[in-house]
Specification:
The complex is a heterodimer of chains A (86) and B (137). Chain A has 86 residues and is α+β, with helices and mostly antiparallel strands. In chain A, 23% of the residues lie in helices and 37% in strands. Chain A has one domain. In chain A, a hairpin with a 5-residue loop joins strand 2 and strand 3. Chain B has one domain. In chain B, 28% of the residues lie in helices and 29% in strands. Chain B has 137 residues and is of the alpha+beta class. Chain B has a three-stranded antiparallel β-sheet, covered by helices on one side. In chain B, strands 1-9 form a two-stranded antiparallel ribbon. Chain B has a two-stranded antiparallel sheet with strand order 4-5. In chain B, a hairpin with a 4-residue loop joins strand 6 and strand 7. Classes of the chains: A alpha+beta (86), B alpha+beta (137). Strand 2 of chain A pairs antiparallel with strand 2 of chain B, so a sheet runs across the interface.
């Protein structure tokens, strides 16, 4: 898998907002303690959903223009040439 | 006591949906998901704590604005925070006048108070017609 920033093209680190359900408690001094954190969204679904891809931003430049390649070894030209060879 | 559940009277444990940030790192064909760090500062954890605190403080401050009327259960429900014990969304500040089970429509309220209002009007109508005791009848 490969993620490319179409704006700066040099970063391989990206940020993705994710909703989680947080269980917390009030302490006796009215401060908060977090007991449990559970994801509400599937990361895989967000990565494959075209609308959610826009939420991914480059950590380096902040751009939302990213390109996700799930299998960089899946090259259609190789398949075409192999078929032609046959 | 900051918040209370109207169904099980829990005032300690609650749940809330919070947005946080994760970092994706594509490295040699693998996808690594981790907390976002800038230098040594863990931004993911900080964002989670800040957002949680913001929502809780908002609900405590804007008690009525955080509630929505649910016609199915005929009660006010908290739009953000739910009870972690029973799952109910009837969570408000203690001593809130937005009592979840005490809602009644304006028509019902007017009807219930009609007698009291009639007596009030009657008082005003006959207020200046009381018998004058010092005059001989």
């Amino acid at each position: 898998m490969q993620i490319d920033c179409l704006s700066c093209g040099k970063s391989n680190e990206f940020l993705l907002p994710l909703w989680v359900v947080t269980t917390f408690k009030f302490n006796e001094d009215d401060t908060l303690s977090i007991l449990h954190v559970k994801p509400l969204e599937s990361l895989e679904d967000k990565l494959t959903d075209n609308n959610s891809i826009r939420e991914i931003s480059c950590k380096e430049c902040g751009s939302n223009e990213v390109d996700i390649v799930f299998n960089e070894y899946d090259n259609q030209d190789d398949e075409v040439s192999a078929l032609e060879g046959l | 006591m900051q918040l209370i559940c109207h169904d099980c009277w829990n005032y300690t444990y609650f749940e809330v949906d919070v947005e946080t940030l994760r970092e994706l790192k594509a490295d040699s064909g693998q996808l690594v998901i981790q907390d976002t760090k800038f230098d040594d500062f863990n931004y993911s954890q900080s964002m989670l704590r800040d957002n949680l605190s913001d929502i809780v403080q908002y609900v405590i401050k804007q008690n009525g604005a955080a509630l929505i009327w649910d016609s199915e259960s005929s009660s006010y429900q908290n739009n953000y925070i739910s009870c972690a014990r029973c799952g109910s969304k009837k969570v408000t500040k203690p001593y809130s006048h937005w009592h979840s089970n005490r809602h009644q429509s304006l028509d019902n309220e007017l009807l219930a108070n009609r007698k009291e209002f009639t007596e009030l009007r009657r008082e005003r109508k006959y207020a200046d017609r009381l018998p004058v005791l010092w005059k001989k009848q």
